[in-house]
Design a protein that fits this description.
By secondary structure, this protein is an alpha+beta fold. The chain contains 2 helices and 7 strands. The strands form 3 sheets. Strands 5-6-7 form a 3-stranded antiparallel sheet, covered by helices on one side. It has a two-stranded antiparallel sheet with strand order 1-4. The model has no long low-confidence stretch (mean pLDDT 83).
Length: 127
């Protein structure tokens, strides 16, 4: 059995959330990877998502499907290097608004969808 501590250290009544099972562990690892931009992990400068390079692209417009496909391809390439244990069947990006994407990952264990804001935060990082 595979166990993983929640990447955001969320807690419940029993303490820090620990998930077990391959499917749930893959989802937690994907979530942590999505919340970590490239260059923010000490000792692993290339680990993390490449979404910062798309923060100035037109999302939510008529031609945003071109950006969405580019983001999907970049996510797949980077995930194969950073998380080779996660088996992906499909990655889909859809613009929800002009600054938010809905990113869906499909694995053999199920589907994981998360909203990803593409705006610049006050600390200078892209969400």
């Amino acid at each position: 059995m595979i166990y993983e501590i929640d990447g955001l250290l969320r807690v419940d009544a029993g303490g820090v959330i620990v998930v077990e099972g391959t499917g749930k562990v893959s989802q937690i690892r994907l979530e942590e990877w999505l919340r970590t931009p490239i260059g923010s992990v000490y000792g692993l400068p290339s680990w993390g998502n490449p979404l910062a390079k798309f923060k100035h692209e037109p999302i939510g417009s008529e031609k945003s499907y071109l950006v969405e496909v580019a983001i999907e391809n970049e996510l797949i390439k980077k995930l194969r290097m950073d998380l080779p244990s996660v088996r992906l069947l499909q990655v889909r990006c859809e613009s929800v608004s002009e600054d938010t994407l809905a990113i869906t990952f499909v694995t053999p264990d199920g589907e994981f969808t998360t909203p990803m804001p593409m705006q610049k935060e006050s600390n200078g990082r892209t969400s």
